[in-house]
Amino acid sequence: MSMVSNIKLIDENGLRIDGRKFNELRPIKIEVGVLNRADGSAYIEWGGNKIIVAVYGPREAFPKHTQNPSRAIVNARYNMAAFSVDERKRPGPDRRAIEISKIIGEALESAIFVEQYPRTSIDVYIEVLQADAGTRIAGLTAASVALADAGIPMKDMIVGCASGKVDGNIVLDLNKEEDNYGQADVPLAIIPRTQEVVLLQMDGNLTREEFGQAIEMSKKAALFISNLQKEALLAKYSRPEEKEEVKEEEAEQENHGDDNHE
Fold it and tell me: Is it the case that residue 92 has pLDDT exceeding 90?
């Protein structure tokens, strides 16, 4: 976060640099089942972010000394591709990626019924293909969808959003310029069914009132995004080609039944 900027982030009409109002989200698109070889997968576009997630497991944890006899271990790996930002990023995990991997893993663990899968690991790979601020929340939101696609039982899918302070105003879902030159950024993730907060961080300075306003703004947006998650899952299982396959199978069964009667 930096207080110094030559960019005018909010214009005289009260609109942000990308034309949004203070409480408006960037466009979000979620797809499910994008990788055939993973047990579960999802792809999210959130503003300029493009993130793909693959889930493998539950499978036997290896090496064996990592196994927990009473529960599954959730391994989350967040990585930004070298080409995901304007200036080429050095490949491989850095301190930021390790920290984000840890907090995403802990958040997912709080929603998964890990006690149902002792001695196993659930591996979640989050790959940021293009970054535009808010990648940890977008990655976590997509990871929850990928876990549901893998059939892993959870309390609910985790969903989140970030709010922050820009030019003295509390705004929803910061973009890259607002994240770089704004005054504060507050990523938040919840379990919608219970309203339990599973991720909360803050970068910058806010008053108590501003912090409360940012939290409420993010929670309201998260509940909206939760419906997008559900719609994406429903879309996977109601694709026209899959319906046609089911109809063909039913027709074949009926034909076999007629043959048997004859």
Answer: no
